[in-house]
Amino acid sequence: MATAASTTIAKAFRVLELFREHAFLTVSQCESALGIPRATAHRLLVSLREAGALEQSPGGHYTLSVSLFELGVLAPERRRLGDRCGSEVEALAHRTGYRAHLGVRRGLGVLYLETAHGAHAQAQGVRTRVGHRGPFHATAMGKVLLAFGPESLLDEVSAEGLRPYTSRTVTSREELERDLERVRRDAWAYAPEQYVAGISAIAVPLRDSEERVHAAISVAGDSRSIARDRTRLIEAARQTAARIERGRGATFRGRSDELNPLVVSL
């Protein structure tokens, strides 16, 4: 049976999880999203602010604190991959002009460890950020991950339901399996407007010294531009992956639950 203290901590983490979808929170938003009394929502937000996890604006909005960010970047996986790959992701974004990402698998979602934007990324409407999680079936990254992953992973994703994010999202297992076969054949994935309307992405895998896929690089932007530049972008992403892989080994070694194909993208 959970103690009062552990219950409070669990509620506090539920509050922090809301920042995956919100840049800032109000007491009312917290109350509504979590289905808790307003007084409880206010108490949790104030407690997190006093603990240094949140900051509060003069208008009463709460945001994640810099201190929490500083702790987050110390996470082992972020340091293993991000410290080594961050500059390459930045270079890819600068070279292509698009949004570039580095991501890994987390449970049944894709976790963005690094993001960087090129000269035209903001105008193209790509709004990804570090810490964002995306779905497998609707992203270029997810398709790569599923293609090289165990059948059990695809079973789990299918059992959760293939949610239609846009009119172009793949929502049947049969169609998804056909996509995955193409990814296995070509070693890159394409997600045309399947997660966000008007935005498309390509993704390529990152492999360790035993040729297992542990992470991936992606490039995202407005659909017309991505379609026009697709061949160039695939090659640029592959070159970036190759440079990172030349330093592979300790970079990609982690826990056993990280030994699955991983790729990230919109």
Keywords summarizing the entry:
9 helices, 2 domains, alpha+beta, globular, 266 residues, six-stranded antiparallel beta sheet, Arc Repressor Mutant, subunit A, two-stranded antiparallel ribbon, Beta-Lactamase
The CATH topology of the largest domain = Beta-Lactamase
Main β-sheet description = 6 strands, antiparallel
Oligomeric nature of the chains: single chain
Number of domains: 2
Poorly predicted tracts of residues: 249-266
> Which overall shape is indicated by the principal axes computed on the Cα atoms?
globular
Span between termini: 40 Å
> So, the CATH homologous superfamily of the largest domain?
GAF domain
**How are the strands of the largest sheet arranged?**
5-4-3-8-7-6
- Percent strand: 15-25%
Mean pLDDT: 81
- What is the share of helical residues? 40-55%
Main structural class:
alpha+beta
Report the total helices. Answer: 9
Named at the architecture level, the CATH assignment of the largest domain is 2-Layer Sandwich
